[in-house]
């Protein structure tokens, strides 16, 4: 029996075991939405396409499964761009389907036409324009395969309206076979042995882990490696949760707002074992002064990440988990109590992450309390800026996929829709979006989505009346000239929540924080907590731009 | 350092844009790029001449490999290979210069492919250096127009 393109797409999504699709309809995707009316998966109508993209992304980060969104052509499609770029930078598997004008009209500047494959080429792992319905099923199969294999990423399928209506027999390929796309999985055995030798000989090693560890599900292997070889562990923002924060060997995040011990250990190390991390500029600080005495072992599935920013002595290309399984066998078991570990202990003891513990309502305290009342088990999503950095510092993450944040692109407005996606994926988890009063307003319209679909996420707004991180830079480097960072005209967030049918709670005193959080968790609805925090609080430590990692500024304690 | 990079790609719409985009987005320089079908109609070969230090060229090759539509990337820097470029040059002529031009064409084993009262079109194939030398020799006569295909390359031997 012949089926329409729209029906075939639905069948393909069902075959891929898609549980939920996010999106918003329009003229050129109408026919597909009609087919979706009886689809076996849930559809979440968002209020903006960017929201749909971030929700699909949040769902993917919380589960490891690809997130899916479907939107219309033209402005619907271009509204996805920030969401795709966010997912691309952080290697998140996503499938975006965009309506397109009929093939006969493509290139004619038709109503709501945009060259979306052209526009999204630099921000997707790959994209397709399906011109013939007979190519559709194979294209969808390939899209899912490309999105989820190798270094994952978003894949876009542009779906013209006439192809949605055209009919053909539906056959879903059992596997994708793409001759030009064969990601390397197994690491080179010789390189692995060399790496083990180097680890065994190192006196001051650090294990530097990134998002790749979470993607490849290699956190168990990382724990084994760290414990067997007694490697102090530092992580990137994307690597948060891949190693338990409270572990003896954990030093914390490295980089611009990293811990003193992580930054100093990196700079003084004689060996960096990088796994699924890419030595991004926020991590290395001034790159020519980065870890001057260290040799580098770099394990990554993406060859382009190797020797891009920092020269690598032993590259190993492949899947982190497979490589670590082998590497763990070859490293020697070590005991602690070396000079190096003692030094690190001293740094950790003398320079912990801290802030001024007075009676004022400080944002760091709010995050510590979220950790406390959820017993460290909540899924935390963040917006971008100070709220994001404090969230990396003052919540002690215990497991992978617990911290969801836009690392590479740094997208404000990400955290709230991502929280909705994560909550749908993990309905039993408490999900908090830690936000600033600036970023929350970038996708606040999704409050309607959360209320309408009964998705009880909690939003903790660290409300300081500023675009705080930019203000911090202006305070430190631009003579306190707060150009364009004062957020006069903020709404009353409590009333705003209420107007959407959500719950709003205002907190102005430190003593009210815990009770407010407990109350918010008990309410089975989306809740906005408006924390009126100290306005000019800053994020420390802070490695100023152009400085080496160990030249970090400490705040007041 | 000048590198000749030969890239086998799927013969599909958008592939050239992906590659051009890669070079512009990452700020790599291309001296020349030539593309055409191979013995297999579904595959095209691109010959890219790029410059940069070892690290940049290594990144270019890895980034090319990362593109889903790229099948194979070969850098010919260590490989014995042939390179050819083709040029068409329209040179001004008159009675007094025609025979001299003919002589030069002969010496360079070029070909005259079109003759008009005040100009000739010369076709020449060769390495980049040879073509550059030829163009310099005919330039004093007056080059009205010139077009080059860009360099194509092939590894020597049976491989």
Task: Give an account of the 3D structure.
The complex is a heterodimer of chains A (557) and B (159). By secondary structure, chain A is an alpha/beta fold. Chain A has 22 helices and 20 strands. Chain A folds into three domains: 2-169, 3-Layer(aba) Sandwich (Rossmann fold), CATH 3.40.50.970; 189-349, Rossmann fold; 363-532, Rossmann fold (3-Layer(aba) Sandwich), CATH 3.40.50.970. In chain A, the strands form four sheets. A six-stranded parallel beta sheet of chain A has the order 3-2-4-5-7-6, with helices on both faces. Chain A has a six-stranded parallel beta sheet with strand order 11-10-9-12-13-14, with helices on both faces. In chain A, 57% of the residues are buried. Chain B is elongated. The longest helix of chain B has 13 residues, at 54-66. The two termini of chain B are 25 Å apart. The mean pLDDT of chain B is 94. Chain B is built from four helices and nine strands; from the N terminus they run βαββαββαββαββ. Chain B has 159 residues and is of the alpha+beta class. Chain B has helices at residues 15-26, 54-66, 95-107, 128-138; strands at residues 2-10, 29-37, 43-51, 70-75, 81-92, 111-116, 119-126, 143-148, 152-155. Chain B folds into two domains: 2-78, ACT domain (Alpha-Beta Plaits); 82-155, ACT-like. Chain A, domain 2 (Alpha-Beta Plaits, 2-Layer Sandwich), CATH 3.30.70.1150. Chains A and B meet through loops of A and helix 1 and helix 2 of B.
């Amino acid at each position: 029996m012949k089926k329409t393109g729209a029906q075939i797409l639905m069948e393909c999504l069902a075959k891929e075991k898609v549980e939920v699709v996010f999106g918003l309809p329009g003229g050129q995707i109408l026919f597909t939405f009609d087919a979706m009316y009886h689809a076996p998966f849930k559809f979440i109508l968002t209020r903006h396409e960017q929201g749909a993209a971030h929700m699909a992304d949040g769902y993917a980060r919380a589960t490891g499964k690809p997130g899916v969104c479907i939107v219309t052509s033209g402005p619907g499609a271009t509204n996805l761009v920030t969401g795709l770029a966010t997912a691309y930078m952080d290697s998140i598997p996503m499938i975006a389907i965009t309506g397109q004008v009929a093939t006969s009209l493509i290139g004619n500047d038709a109503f709501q036409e945009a060259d979306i494959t052209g526009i999204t080429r630099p921000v997707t792992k790959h994209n397709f324009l399906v011109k013939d319905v007979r190519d559709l099923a194979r294209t969808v199969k390939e899209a899912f395969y490309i999105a989820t294999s190798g270094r994952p990423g978003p894949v876009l399928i542009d779906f013209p309206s006439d192809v949605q209506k055209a009919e053909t027999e539906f056959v879903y390929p059992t596997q994708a076979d793409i001759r030009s796309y064969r990601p390397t999985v197994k690491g080179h055995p010789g390189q692995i042995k060399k790496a083990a030798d180097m680890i065994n000989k190192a006196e001051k090693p650090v294990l530097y882990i990134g998002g790749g560890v979470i993607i490849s599900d290699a956190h168990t292997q990382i724990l084994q490696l760290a414990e067997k070889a007694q490697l102090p562990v530092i992580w990137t923002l994307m690597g948060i949760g891949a190693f338990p924060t409270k572990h003896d060997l954990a030093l914390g995040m490295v980089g611009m707002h990293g811990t003193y011990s992580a930054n100093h250990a990196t700079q003084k190390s004689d060996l960096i074992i990088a796994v699924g991390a890419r030595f991004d500029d926020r991590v290395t600080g001034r790159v020519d002064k980065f870890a001057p005495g260290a040799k580098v072992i770099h394990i990554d599935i993406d060859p382009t990440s190797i020797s891009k920013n920092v020269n690598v002595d032993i590259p190993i290309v492949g899947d982190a988990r497979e490589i670590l399984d082998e590497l763990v066998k070859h490293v020697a078991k070590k005991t602690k109590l070396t000079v190096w570990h003692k030094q690190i202990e001293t740094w950790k003891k003398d320079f912990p992450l801290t802030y001024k513990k007075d009676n004022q309502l400080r944002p760091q305290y709010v995050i510590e309390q979220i950790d406390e009342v959820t017993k460290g088990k909540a899924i935390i999503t963040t917006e971008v800026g100070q709220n994001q950095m404090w969230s990396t510092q003052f919540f002690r993450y215990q497991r992978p996929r617990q911290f969801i944040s836009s690392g590479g692109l740094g997208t404000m407005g990400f955290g709230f829709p991502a929280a909705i996606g994560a909550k749908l994926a993990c309905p039993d988890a408490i999900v908090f979006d830690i936000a600033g009063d600036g970023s929350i307003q970038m996708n606040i319209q999704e409050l309607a989505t959360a209320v309408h679909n009964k998705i009880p996420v909690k939003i903790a707004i660290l409300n300081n009346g500023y675009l705080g991180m930019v203000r911090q830079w202006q305070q430190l480097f631009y003579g306190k000239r707060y150009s364009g960072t004062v957020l006069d005209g903020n709404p009353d967030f409590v009333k705003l929540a209420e107007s959407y049918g959500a719950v709003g709670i205002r907190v102005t005193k430190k003593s009210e924080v815990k009770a407010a959080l407990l109350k918010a968790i008990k309410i089975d609805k989306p809740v906005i907590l408006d924390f009126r925090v100290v306005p000019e609080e800053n994020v420390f430590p802070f490695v100023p731009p152009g400085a080496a990692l160990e030249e970090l500024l400490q705040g007041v304690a | 350092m000048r590198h000749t990079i030969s890239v086998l790609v799927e013969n599909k719409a958008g592939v050239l844009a992906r590659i051009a985009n890669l070079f512009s987005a990452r700020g790599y320089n291309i001296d020349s790029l030539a593309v055409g079908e191979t013995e297999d109609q579904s595959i095209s070969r691109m010959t890219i001449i790029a410059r940069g230090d070892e690290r940049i060229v290594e990144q270019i090759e890895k980034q090319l490999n990362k593109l889903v539509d790229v099948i194979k990337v070969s850098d010919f820097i260590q490989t014995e290979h042939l390179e050819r470029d083709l040029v068409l040059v329209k040179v001004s002529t008159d009675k007094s210069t025609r025979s001299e031009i003919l002589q030069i064409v002969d010496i360079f084993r070029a070909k005259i492919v079109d003759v008009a009262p005040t100009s000739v079109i010369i076709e020449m194939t060769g390495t980049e250096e040879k073509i550059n030398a030829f163009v310099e020799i005919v330039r004093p006569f007056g080059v009205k127009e010139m077009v080059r295909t860009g360099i194509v390359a092939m590894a020597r031997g049976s491989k």
